Task: structure prediction
Amino acid sequence: MSGITASTALWYASRATGIISLVLLSAVVVLGITVNRRGRLPGLPRFAVTGLHRNLSLIAVLFLAVHVLSAVADSYVSISLAATIIPFVSSYEPFWLGLGAVSLDLLAVVLVTSLVRSRIPRRAWRAVHWLSYGLYPVAVVHSIGSSTDLQSGWLLAVTVACLAAVAGAVVFRLRRSLTAIPRFQRVITALDDAAARPAGSPAGRQAAERGAPR
Result:
């Protein structure tokens, strides 16, 4: 195609917002994987990490909504609104669009439970939140299968870079988990250090404070 016209604007909008959604979703997943249990990243306070994660998630949802609506509105192919929610019922590319519907449904569950996080048990919220790690590969497969643009050229390079970033985050988290000292061992070490020093000394107090449960 030579350029954007009135008849191709929705097609371009759907493709562009789909790619942006993939990049943003990758960033959200990378951030979620690398954040430690206290909700922090090296060099950033907790409130900054929380705000960044939330804002990236909301922006990704916004672009995803435009991606879905523009695909439904595009008259070039027939995609019903129901097909974007109910998996594998589309008359056009039922498998690939069905995967997109699955990832959209999972994302909706994660989003809704995040909005009512204060009203549900933390364990239940965390269990549901793990769905975000499951929806990511489904969304990637949907993107590659439903769009020939992502199967070659610079868009394929962008997709590979997103996958590499997520894979790198997983390796980073696994290495950190394997090398981390268990909490009970930190407590025992701190108590031993405190016992080896006079109780009233600054070093003794600091060692005891490090081992105190929080």
